Amino acid sequence: MRVLVSGCLAGLPCGVDGTSYGEYPLARFLLSRPNVKAFAFCPEDRAYGTPRFTPNISRGNGFDVLAGRARVQADTDAEEYITEPMVREARAMAELATREHVHLALMMDISGACGSTVVYNGRRKNKEFSTGPGVAGAAVMELGIPIVSQRDERTLRMVLRKLGAEADAPFGDGLDHHEREWYIATFGAHSGDRPQ
Ligand code: SF4
Fold first, then answer.
1. What's the CA-to-centroid distance between 178 and ligand 1, angstroms?
2. Fewer C-beta within 10 Å: the chain N or C terminus?
3. What is the CA radius of gyration of the chain?
4. Is the CB of 109 under 6 A from ligand 1?
5. Cis upstream peptide for 51 (omega within 30°)
6. Residue 192 has pLDDT above 90, yes or no
7. Tell me: the pLDDT tens digits for 16-64?
8. pLDDT class of 70 with cuts at 50, 70, 90
9. Nearest CA residue ID for atom 5, ligand 1
10. Which residues pair with residue 80 across a beta bridge?
């Protein structure tokens, strides 16, 4: 299985703080399977460098940014919009997926770039969220490539079952992100309404 993967989930120190954001055992387990070939990419590192301010989508999700209906804003007190580099590198990530004929994308949810189910709406300190993908997530989804995030345990386990590796996988609560209490309390029960 050929898998496009967020650089940080592959262990690259490309997060906003120069780390890989810690361990996600099930995602790492999937990437370590011998029948998985991973293609890692970090759109924000390429767009803004590392370390960096956190880029957030303002008033929408990644589809809105790609359509010109929303912008990307630096998470600082200055009203600084930084949309163009994000769109450029989101498209570059999607081009990599096409070039390498990936079957699946494994991407870091809630990121304004790599998110698949939820993104911040505006500055993180406001703790407001939008449903839908980040900008790179949207560009990959537009190609029809399925995305699973590090928070989607039920779907990750299904993928591992197809790879013949579920029995040895680490186990958590068995739920996908949109099935958990936080998501349902924030957005309502959208079971089966995942934007992909
Ligand atoms: S979530 Fe995406 S953009 Fe953010 S550090 Fe990871 S790979 Fe880079």
1. 20
2. N
3. 16
4. no
5. yes
6. no
7. 999 999 989 999 999 999 999 999 999 999 999 999 999 999 999 999 9
8. very high
9. 15
10. none
Among the atoms of ligand 1, which is closest to the Cα of residue 44? 3
Q: Which amino acid is at 26?
A: L
Determine the residue type at 14. Answer: C
Q: Is the pLDDT at 194 greater than 70, yes or no? A: no
Q: How far apart are CA 105 and CA 126, in angstroms?
A: 29
Bridge partners (DSSP) of residue 120 are: 129
Q: How far away, in angstroms, is 103 Cα from ligand 1 center?
A: 20
Nearest to 173 by CA among 149, 193, 157, 194: 157
Residue at token pair 């590192």: 45
- CA dist., res. 154 & res. 162, Å (int): 13
Q: Tally the C-alpha atoms within 13 A of residue 169's C-alpha that lie toward its C-beta.
A: 28
User: For residue 124, which amino acid is it?
Assistant: R
> Cα–Cα distances in Å, from 28 out to 23, 25, 128, 170?
8, 5, 29, 10
Angle ∠(191,133,176) on CA atoms, nearest 5: 35
